[in-house]
Amino acid sequence: MGFDGLKNKIQIIDLVDGLKRVASSGGGEFAGPCPFCGGIDRFRVQPAKNIWLCRHCTNGIWRDVIDFIARRDNVTISQAAQSIDGGFPRFSKQSGKLKKPVYHAYKPPTDAWQAAAREAVAICENNLFEPAGARALEYLHSRGLTDTTIKTFRLGFSPKFNQGDLYIPHGITIPAFANGVLWYVKIRTNGEPKYKLVAGSKPAAIFNADNLATARDCLLVEGEFNAMIGHQTINDVIAVASMGSAGNRPDLATWGPYFINKTFIFTLYDADDAGQSGALALHNQLGERVKLVALPANAGDLNDYYTAGGDVWQWMKTCFEFWEPATDNAGKENNAE
Length: 337
Fold this sequence. Notes:
337 residues; alpha+beta; DNA Primase, Chain A; DNA primase DNAg catalytic core, N-terminal domain; Dna Topoisomerase Vi A Subunit, Chain: A, domain 2; 4-stranded antiparallel beta sheet; 11 helices; 34% helix
């Protein structure tokens, strides 16, 4: 498949959350916070042409979906094209032989960024339990989070401030750590857009990744609040984590070890196009272990289900009961052969 075909295989609009329509002519245009630099209202997508720009990251120049994935996954344009196409070998004219592509793992932010961001996270943690953070703490409690969970995930409150070269917007801070590395800091605002990223964050990371390391099974959900509620309610049964967004794909060079030992990888994604596309992409990457599960009708997401009085543990037990007999039967049939 040529580059033109690849450019239409994945839609940028399905990879980015928090966008709003700002124009209707010419197929429409959507705007929102940039998933790379976190800038407010810098990011634009034209779905009809499947192109995007950021006034900061691309200097206002329109780019295609291959460039988007290359930037998101920290790989070359050629490697991004390969990932879209399923990974095809490159032909070397010099040697006449097929060469496997060199793949560079998705890398965390710089050490300097992490140092400043860690200080900001610590300041915001303290703020949350001070009078200035009272409303933010009340909001977190209203989402069903206990103080133990809030402290486990190091949530905080930012009145908006600068920490070194980093600007920390106003709102609830949600840091994502994995194996001692700080990958991103997301802000839950009290307005639009609902979420912002601290500039320099690397958002295609697994939230609550460390919890996956030794677990036999895992549940992947959309969004950090769903992951935190899952961890709070069923962590003794299954590890719960999130890619942050249905549009994020786990780079297996970096995140593969977190999935290699899993029997089941349950995916609870939204029932929209982005959610279904994300679940399918995980299935293509990680194989038959990926099982799509769903909450009862009209339950919303996992956080909604829990705050409405839903029994998350019983729901998860039902998911296991549905899939484990099927797996056992398949094993018996294979053994009989």
